Amino acid sequence: MASSALSAILKSLSLxxxxxxxxxxxxxxxxxxxxxxxLLPQLILNYNTGSADGISLAFLAIWLLGDATNLxxxxxxxxxxxxxxxAVYFCFADFVLISQCLYYNKVNATRARLAxxxxxxxxxxxxxxxxxxxxxxxxxNSRRRRSTGLSMNRRRDxxxxxxxxxxxxxxxxxxxxxxxxxxxxGAAGWAIAxxxxxxxxxxxxxxxxxxxxxxxxxxxxxxxxxxxxxxxxIPQIVKNYKEKSCEGLALLFFLLSLMGNLTYGIGIxxxxxxxxxxxxxxxxxxxxxxxxxxxxxxxxxxxxYAPKPSASAVE
Length: 315
Fold this sequence. Notes:
This protein is mainly alpha-helical. It has one domain (about 1-125, about 170-315). Helices cover about 80% and strands about 0% of the residues. α4 (about 55-75) runs antiparallel to α5 (about 80-125). The protein is elongated and about 85 Å long. The protein starts with a helix and ends with a helix. This is Vacuolar membrane PQ loop repeat protein. Keywords: Membrane, Transmembrane, Transmembrane helix. One of its GO terms (cellular component) is lytic vacuole membrane.
């Protein structure tokens, strides 16, 4: 699939399309495909575990604000349709993920409250009633051991769902294949769009077509968006540090974020390196390439806080 996409791209090059324009389109298309699939791993993980405790709602809320200002700034600046389409889709996807997290948080909070009430009622029940239970002849600490064991088993099952899916021996292999497949789909999608006439190269001089006043307003929104993107991951990093765990987070979610930001920035740089063009797109470059550093910190946390095999073997 990757080779056919590459051959289609090479065949698409002609006198009407320079290699630089082609690379800008290819990386932009790959970025678009990456953003489309970005939130799916986290949505699926939340659904499988029935919980959203691992992800910070502050992270998602600030990210949504960044996407909203990014959309407004992209429309104002008259950026390429791909950028605007990504911004619209991502605002919708953010809303879906936040709604899912709020739902699971509410459901699990209700269950915890009901369990606490049941536990309180059980502790206040008559002593004779307790002695008639099936645990009458059990050793004094057996019930505590049993409940603790069940709790530990639940934690292990949850960790197993996240780190070792059925039939998978190495999640990194699955993640790598997923990323390569998305890249190939994005490149092939661009080639098809180019051949069909749907995608057309944007002239470099269109970077400031809206005039100085419009560009200034769009850049202000762009910088606000960049600040939101850079600050959004901080609550998640702090949460991971406090809990000393990344359980409940989909690693593929952050891998796709890294890939999407990288290809997005490369797509902008491949289009033009003119000073005015780079100045116009500087906030979007900061927002995309700058967050890669913070994604790197989260990858490091995945490594540091990964469950130790020796710890799970201890009874």
